[in-house]
Amino acid sequence: MASTSGLAITSPSNLSDLKECSGSRKARVLYDYDAANSTELSLLADEVITVFSVVGMDSDWLMGERGNQKGKVPITYLELLN
């Protein structure tokens, strides 16, 4: 179970949900996204990927993984799954 003690997050609820959870979780992609550079991961609507937060990374982004591919993904393009 996740603990919410000590959390003071003003970002979207998806991000606070993720930060309460240890490790990674699954997310459904809401919209297609074309990576702008090699640090980002291109996404296809309706696919499910694994996401996790990285300390120091912009709060509008998460790290995403699909198979052996990994890169930053915009949090607004994701629906975090339980």
Automatic annotation (TrEMBL):
Record-annotated membrane-spanning stretches: none
Entry-linked SUPFAM superfamilies: SH3-domain
Gene name in the database record: SH3GLB1
Protein name: Endophilin-B1
Signal peptide range: none
Matches recorded under InterPro entries: Endophilin_SH3RF, SH3-like_dom_sf, SH3_domain, SH3GLB_SH3
Native source species: Saguinus oedipus (Cotton-top tamarin)
Gene3D superfamilies, sorted: SH3 Domains (2.30.30.40)
CDD domains: SH3_Endophilin_B1
